[in-house]
Amino acid sequence: ATISYDRRDETVAVLHALREKCHMDLVVQTEEMASLQRIKDHESKLAKFMDVKGQKRCMRDLLDRKETRRDERHNALQNQLVRNEEILNRVWKMSGTARINDFVAAYTQREFENYTTFNLIAALHFECETLNDSIIRLKDDI
To answer: Is residue 96 classed as helix, strand or coil in its secondary structure?
Structure first.
């Protein structure tokens, strides 16, 4: 019984020593992982910094080109605005009205007259086509 008890004590002591060793290994490995993670994070920050630094050099050129394109578009829009204002002024002069309501009323009336004329011409054209077909049939009959 004493031998068994001594063996059990030895086994418990070995288990306790192994647990302590495992715990110490875990602590050391955890510290090592934290250290490696800090190094990785630092390297990542350096890589990002270098990427941004390189991009800033390229970005200056891109920003200059973008600003030039924006200025060109702005100038084109300004020119278009001037042309549109000139056209609008010519329309106002041709209409002979100074108020927009008078202009809209005159435009609506002209549009109605033009639509009516178009319908009349379309009806006359259809009637001419019908008469031509009738004449051709009559000639064939004669």
So the answer is: coil
Domain boundaries, the chain: 98-142
Element housing 123 (H / E): helix 100-141
89 closest CA partner among 74, 75, 97: 97
In terms of pTM, does the model score above 0.85? no
Close Cβ partners of 103 (under 8 Å, ≥ 6 residues apart): 92, 95, 97
pLDDT digits (tens, 9 = 90+) for 45-89: 999 988 877 776 667 777 888 899 999 999 999 999 999 999 988
Q: 95: burial class by Cβ within 10 Å (0-12, 13-18, 19+)?
A: middle
